[in-house]
Amino acid sequence: MTFTTIMVANRGEIARRVIRGAHAVGLRCVAVYVDVDADDLYVREADVAMRLATNYLDGEAILAAAKMSSVEAIHPGYGFLSENGDFAANVEAAGLVWIGPSPRVIDSMGDKLAAKRLAKRAGVAVLPSSEDPNDASSIGYPLMVKAVAGGGGKGIRVVTDATQLDEAVAAAQREAKSSFGDDRIFIERYLASSRHVEIQILGDRYGNLVHLGERDCSIQRRHQKLIEESPSPIVDEDLRRAMGAAALDLARLIGYKSAGTVEFLVDDETHDFYFLEVNTRLQVEHPVTEEVTGIDLVREQLRVAQGERLGYGQDDVHFSGSAIEVRLCAEDPSVGFLPATGTLFAYETPSEPLVRWESGVERGSVVTVSFDPLLAKVIAHAPTRVEAAATLARALERLHLGGVTTNRDFLVATLRSEHFLAGDTTTDFIERFDSPRELPFCEEELVAAASAGALWLQGERRANAEVLHQVPSGWRNARLPRQRTSLLFGHQQMDLNYALRRDGTFDLGAHGSARVHHWNESAIDLELNGYRSTSRVTRAGENLYVQILRGTVAFKIVSRFDVQHGEITPGGLNAPMPGLILDVRVSAGQHVNAGETMVVMEAMKMEHVISAPSSGTVSEVLVTKDQQVDNGAPLLTFDPDDTTNET
After folding, report:
1. What is the model's pLDDT at position 193?
2. Are 544 and 450 within one domain?
3. Is the dihedral of CA 220, 289, 31, 307 positive or negative?
């Protein structure tokens, strides 16, 4: 049962994590990749990489690659085929070791309804539910429509009254079919004020089981986790003991081995907890458990798969300090956290503070709609929760990042908010407190960033000069006009006028004076009016990214020549992201009310609804069902009703 070479049947940051863990215990790793991932970090870090002509869900292709590369075991990571019982069974039938729980357990927990029945047998409380949407009135509102084979927030809709039920069921079924190939759904009571708390379990093939404490994953958008932590701010020792016991009772009933997670919903008022599901794989948020327990979960998975005993019991598991993880995603919080795409022109993690970066991208990586928008997981561990939050916020602020819209500013604002620090982190946290979605820079910060950018560009011009490069930029033997650089921050144009003085400083006019202490192709050490700091700077064509104390300022370099740009036609509704048109609900000449669904799109396996911004009439429909559209593509034109009062 021992093995020396494993295949990692996944991609991105989790593939890197498994490869790193396997290498640490002396194992060789074979990666798989599709063409769009050919240059990714994990492909280069594996010992061998095998190209897939299809996709990461093609189990036959992965098994064929495993046979060609002579691997002895397969680690599925999370997502894709990690909770596919048929694939796990095929791996074992091929004579390979499956690094995870048995196919039987995967199947029993993959069906959410079957899992609820088993939880009840184990004596674990469950929320009222039904497979028949007609039972909604007996369950009561609000309720959730959930995919039977769901996960990752997909195939879930919250319904507050009966008028929303049919549409929610249809949408959840479409999304579930697209994501899991299974459109079965059920309805379940929804607790509006609750905590999403999960218990990490670990077992071997000899019946030894332990739990590694809880993770609180309550801060979510679109029912997908954004911030996870351990321990939970709501869980005391008694509740931890009760939830841990419930998780282990269920694990023993189903004969669980390897790493897994039992998820619960905790009523914020009563602290009663209810079973949600079992994730039969490594969780995205597993690092916070590793940080507080010191137990490497990938290493434990590998040990269990090779037939080793855990070698420790529940009394041997100890917890230290507090760990918090955030998911840095390519998405735009200002428009409902819609996924974003683009090229990471700037991406450099800071050397301090010391936090854990789990990332699958690097500078130059292209973010597409093909996969999940996760760019990195960032984890801080500290003696106290407040210290962990502060450390994590500072690390995010110091990340040099540009080219793709992300949720970085929202995460920092949340980590520094009084509500988060007080532990008031229920599942409706985002709706209740609405942390700032983007970082508001004050005028002084923008002037400092623009000055650093302008003088960095001045240094770049001198470094690239083909003649007289030893002569300082701006030097003249006669009195001539000052140099000027114009930078665009959003819609705000900042004009920087400067002149080099004989003492080597720059006269910035109304903005004071500056001295460049050091310049190189990636940074500038600038003293501005007595305030000295070093800024990381990245240029990508006409894009300029300048790092300051609280984040990265993105500028457009304004051309010295006037360039005319086209404008979007007034009254047009455009695609908020690249995606597939799933449904067009309106036709030309149709009158609609504010909020009425007009177009339904799919991107990154999630549905996104384009609604009428006000009451009005559809002038023209420019897309059709099953059409692929680019970001910003016009979908339809729309004439709002005239609401002015005529006299």
Report:
1. 83
2. yes
3. negative
Give the separation between CA 55 and CA 71, rounded to whole angstroms: 19
For the four alpha carbons of 619, 625, 627 and 632, in that order, the dihedral sign comes to positive
DSSP per-residue letters across 313-340: -GGG----SEEEEEEEESEEGGGTTEE-
Q: 448 and 536: one domain? A: yes
Other CB atoms within a 10 A radius of the CB of residue 438 amount to 16
**How far lies 159's CA from each of 138, 142, 155, in Å?**
14, 6, 13
At which residue do the structure tokens 């990042």 appear?
Answer: 401
For the residues of 494-534, what is the DSSP string, one character each?
Answer: EEEEEEE-TTS-EE-GGG-EEEEEEEETTEEEEEETTEEEE
Q: How far apart are CA 308 and CA 303, in angstroms?
A: 5
Residue 529: Cβ within 10 Å count: 14
- Look at residue 470 in the predicted model and tell me its pLDDT: 57
Same domain flag for 447 and 552: yes
CB 599 within 8 A of CB 610: yes
Amino acid at residue number 143: L
Nearest to 606 by CA among 277, 223, 192, 326: 223
Q: In what order do the strands lie in the sheet with 616-621?
A: 572-574, 634-640, 616-621, 591-592
Comparing CA positions, the residue from 64, 618, 83, 22 lying closest to residue 301 is 22
* Rama region for 299: left / alpha / beta (φ>0; ψ in -120 to 50; rest): alpha
pLDDT at 645: 42
Residue 41 lies in a domain: yes
CATH of the domain at 20: 3.40.50.20
User: Which pLDDT belongs to residue 481?
Assistant: 62
Residue 568: its pLDDT value, please? Answer: 41
Strand order in 154-159's β-sheet? 129-130, 185-189, 143-151, 154-159
Specify if 255 maps to a domain: no
Cis omega (within 30 of 0) for bond into 231: yes
| Residues 461 and 544 occupy one common structural domain | yes
CA distance 121 to 117: 6
Question: What pLDDT, on a 0 to 100 scale, did the predictor assign at position 471?
Answer: 53
Calculate the CA dihedral of residues 6, 10, 16, 21 and round it to 10 degrees. -40
Total number of domains constituting the chain: 5
Q: Do both 464 and 544 map to the same domain?
A: yes
| Residue 541 resides in a domain | yes
Q: Find out whether 275 and 125 touch, Cβ atoms under 8 Å.
A: yes
Q: Work out the angle at residue 8's Cα, subtended by the Cα atoms of residues 7 and 9, and round it to the nearest 5 degrees.
A: 105
- What tokens appear for 359 in the block? 């990332």
Under 8 Å between Cβ of 161 and 222: no
Pair 372, 414 in one domain: yes
Mark whether 553 and 600 lie in a shared domain: no
What's the CATH code of the domain at 597? 2.40.50.100
Q: Is residue 344 part of a domain?
A: yes
Provide block-wise average pLDDT over 10 residues at a time, the chain (647 residues).
Answer: 95 98 98 96 98 97 97 97 97 98 96 91 93 91 87 82 92 84 89 92 98 97 93 97 98 98 95 95 98 98 98 98 98 91 96 97 92 95 98 98 97 97 95 89 95 96 72 52 90 93 93 96 97 97 96 92 45 76 90 86 74 86 88 86 53
CA torsion through residues 221, 223, 228, 234, sign:
positive
The answer to whether residues 524 and 532 touch, using CB atoms and an 8 Å cutoff, is no
Q: Could you list the residue range(s) of the whole structural domain that residue 483 is in?
A: 443-557
* 282 and 83 Cβ atoms separated by less than 8 Å: no
